[in-house]
Task: inverse folding
């Protein structure tokens, strides 16, 4: 069995490498690969020279740990009665009817994951090798990563098997979840009580030193039942955190014992996992296929009808029908009511914070966070809000059959992502606006806040639409490149392609924004001394809107023309 | 030889298959038919040991599938309706991998005539991405036949094949049966049953409606009328599409 697995993996790796090398003969992959290599060289080379880093990796590791723990808790609380193990559809086709016992299939599953674990361990060692603050060598760090990743993998293998076994013993999902939630609640309560009784650790002399900050933070929760959980975590992380070879040798033994105990726990689980595994493989294959086609980035195919974002009137224009359809296909919670409720929640929370002693600090943080988020929404949002031509390209034959002018189809397709991005931007702007009094902006007076916010709110939908025009144009102009971009095709060349594509989008948007920005500046400077600041600001905003609106109209019309001439055979 | 006794498969309270018993002797081809959702694929998966049945027993070539899964599985082959292959293994490497899993010695000598029989010998070095759906289907079948199984389960074996491929597949099934294999196949194509199957089992909502030789089943549902088509027999037996 091990020979067969080794053959499968080694041949697969070799063939994958050959395929990737062969596709470099196409210029689009070659250029992408060069961009990807340059990126890796710049990022890793740069960090390598930069020496030890301070808090960011520590915070990143903490967030990652929380995510893994959260995912693990979810695995135990899964509403599924028989979650199953992760096998590919090919594994199920070839191995499930093969002369292999259930134990052999579990071992195959564990061994199979070792290939990706080893690669991940090497990759993590590469990107973070100089970020460590506790010393150790690269080999020790790689081994440490391997222990941590294998532990996590065994946990994620054991959890569904245990859940399936509990189901087969009559403990159905509601009861299991109730018991686990009670246990979790008791655990948290006991830890909280212990923390309250325990003397707080002395704060470190310098919070900028990551090790001291980490020990200080751990000292808070290293009490009561949490002490035992942390003790296990310390054993598992011991080899990774070992400062030298001697400490590593002392730490690796207990860590391997914990691994062995988990392995025994998993392989002794004599339970049926086949049904769940087949369902999981089918869902995964469906999801991967959708991602390859760029239809869905994060979700899988809906299994039940979603709520409508708004009621579509029979007399509504065709563009509204596209908006309705594309919004229906996105997150079901996205509708005017949710956006309004979010705005109310922001108003309530920010209003409450204003009267709290820690409020100014918190609002300052929220304000800047909202500003950064708005920037990300504008820059990266169009990459994720793809409910437009990019998502509908697979239905292009139907779209072209509609009795509509090309520009109307393009306009209709653009409306949904514009609505999504605008809603997000307005919510972020609301947070920023409510936090403005605490941001201490010397270049802006209180009287200018409201007009500035209104102008920004008016301009944002146009900028978002402009950002979306570019990737949609790319779909029609360079279908070979653009269809590649939303897919999750692996490889440094694919990554490089995505980077080039994103840079191109940013550049095109900047070029489109320059005339509007110039017009706004000229209008503002020319009229400010005549009519005052606020009216001048309003005039500048109107000028920006007019130019952006004109550009958008030309863009939509031109894209419509392109769509009508778009050859589906390409 | 396939012996099935009181086979049942439940998903919660839903019975996908219930109280199913039949036997397929060497040289026989049993056609499993029924409307969508009748439980054909679930039955085949239970028989092939892919999923465990909730109740009942399955014996493959004299071996109990639950008590001796390895021995029983060594004697069977399952051919799914969709050809699912490893993306980065070539045609030849798929056969080599299957040979290792089943412990087939000298697999290259065995694989060559199979590849020629299914007309994919010239694609031996190709990856699945370079193959048509029909070729992928043929590869899956070649992989399944590599260890010379005595028992075969085909789930919709003609899906995706061109007319010549269909002809060859039918001939292949009949030849394997003549050589002594016990075969169960599920299909919606009633002409396939007429041409290939010696016996028929009609399923509806997980339960057996009728089974026997084709002539026996026709006689049972024709009500003495001469020349009733198999399609009409199927509709009468299953009560339409519900």
Result:
């Amino acid at each position: 069995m091990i020979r067969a697995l080794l053959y499968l993996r080694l041949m697969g790796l070799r063939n994958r490498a050959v395929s990737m090398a062969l596709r470099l003969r196409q210029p689009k992959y070659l250029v992408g690969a060069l961009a990807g290599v340059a990126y890796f060289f710049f990022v890793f080379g740069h960090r390598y020279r930069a020496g030890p880093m301070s808090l960011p990796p520590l915070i990143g590791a903490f967030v990652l740990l929380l995510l893994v723990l959260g995912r693990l808790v979810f695995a135990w609380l899964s509403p599924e009665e028989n979650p199953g193990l992760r096998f590919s559809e090919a594994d199920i086709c070839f191995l499930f009817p093969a002369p292999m016992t259930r134990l052999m299939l579990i071992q195959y599953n564990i061994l199979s994951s070792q290939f990706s674990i080893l690669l991940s361990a090497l990759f993590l060692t590469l990107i973070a090798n100089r970020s460590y603050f506790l010393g150790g060598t690269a080999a020790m760090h790689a081994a440490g990563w391997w222990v941590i990743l294998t532990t996590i993998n065994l946990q994620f293998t054991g959890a569904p098997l245990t859940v399936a076994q509990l189901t087969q013993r009559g403990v159905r999902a509601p009861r299991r979840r109730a018991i686990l939630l009670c246990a979790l609640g008791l655990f948290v309560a006991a830890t909280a009580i212990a923390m309250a009784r325990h003397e707080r650790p002395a704060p470190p002399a310098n919070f900028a030193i990551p090790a001291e900050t980490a020990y200080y933070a751990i000292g808070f929760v290293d009490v009561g039942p949490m002490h035992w959980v942390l003790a296990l975590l310390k054993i598992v992380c011991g080899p990774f955190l070992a400062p030298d070879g001697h400490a590593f040798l002392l730490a690796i033994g207990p860590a391997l014992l914990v691994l062995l105990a988990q392995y025994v726990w998993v392989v002794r689980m004599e339970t049926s996992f086949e049904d769940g595994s087949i369902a999981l493989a089918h869902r995964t294959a469906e999801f991967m296929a959708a991602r390859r086609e760029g239809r869905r980035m994060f979700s899988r195919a809906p299994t039940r009808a979603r709520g409508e974002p708004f009621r579509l009137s029979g007399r509504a224009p065709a563009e509204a029908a596209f908006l309705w359809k594309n919004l229906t296909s996105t997150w079901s919670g996205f509708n005017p009511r949710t956006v309004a409720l979010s705005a109310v929640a922001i108003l309530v929370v920010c209003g409450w914070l204003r009267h709290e002693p820690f409020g100014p600090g918190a609002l300052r943080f929220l304000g800047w966070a909202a500003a950064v988020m708005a920037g990300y929404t504008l820059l990266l949002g169009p990459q994720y809000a793809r409910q437009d031509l990019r998502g509908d390209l697979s239905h292009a034959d139907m779209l072209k059959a509609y009795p509509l002018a090309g520009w109307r189809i393009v306009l209709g397709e653009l409306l949904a992502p514009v609505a999504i991005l605008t809603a997000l931007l307005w919510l972020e702007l609301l947070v920023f606006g409510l936090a403005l009094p605490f941001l201490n902006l010397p270049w802006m007076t209180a009287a200018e806040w409201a007009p500035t916010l209104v102008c920004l709110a008016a301009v944002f939908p146009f900028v978002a639409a402009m950002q979306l025009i570019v990737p949609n144009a790319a779909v029609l102009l360079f279908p070979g490149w653009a269809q590649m971009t939303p897919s999750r095709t692996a490889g440094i060349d694919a990554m490089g392609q995505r980077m080039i594509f994103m840079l191109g989008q940013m550049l095109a948007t900047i070029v489109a924004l320059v005339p509007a920005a110039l017009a706004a500046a000229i209008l503002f400077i020319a009229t400010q001394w005549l009519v005052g600041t606020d009216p001048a600001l309003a005039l500048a905003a109107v000028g920006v809107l007019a130019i952006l609106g004109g550009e958008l109209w030309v863009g939509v019309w031109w894209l419509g023309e392109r769509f009508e001439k778009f050859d589906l055979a390409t | 030889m396939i012996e099935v006794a009181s086979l049942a498969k439940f998903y919660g309270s839903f019975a996908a298959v219930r109280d199913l018993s039949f036997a397929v002797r060497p040289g026989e081809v049993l056609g499993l038919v029924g409307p969508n959702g009748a439980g054909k694929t679930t039955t085949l998966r239970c028989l092939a040991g892919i999923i465990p049945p909730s109740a009942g027993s399955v014996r493959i070539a004299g071996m109990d599938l639950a008590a001796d899964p390895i021995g029983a599985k060594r004697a069977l082959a399952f051919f799914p309706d969709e050809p699912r292959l490893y993306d980065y293994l070539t045609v030849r490497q798929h056969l080599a991998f299957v040979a290792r899993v089943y412990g087939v010695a000298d697999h290259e000598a065995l694989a060559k005539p199979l590849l020629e029989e299914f007309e994919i010998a010239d694609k031996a070095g190709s990856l699945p991405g370079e193959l048509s759906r029909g070729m992928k289907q043929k590869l899956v079948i070649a992989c399944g036949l590599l260890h010379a199984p005595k028992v075969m389960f085909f789930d919709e074996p003609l899906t995706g094949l061109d007319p010549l491929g269909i002809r060859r597949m039918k001939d292949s099934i009949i030849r394997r049966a003549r050589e002594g294999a016990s075969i169960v196949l599920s299909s919606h194509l009633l002409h396939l049953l007429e041409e290939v199957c010696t016996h028929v089992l009609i399923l509806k909502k997980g339960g057996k409606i009728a089974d026997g030789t084709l002539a026996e089943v026709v006689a049972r549902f024709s009500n003495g009328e001469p020349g009733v088509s198999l399609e009409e027999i199927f509709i009468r037996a299953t009560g339409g599409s519900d």
The two ends of chain B are 33 Å apart (CA to CA). The first strand of chain B starts at residue 2 and ends at 11. Chain B touches chain A at residues 11-12, 45, 48-52, 69-71, 73-74, 76-78, 80, 82-90, 93, 96-98, 100-103, 127, 140, 143 (CB under 8 Å).
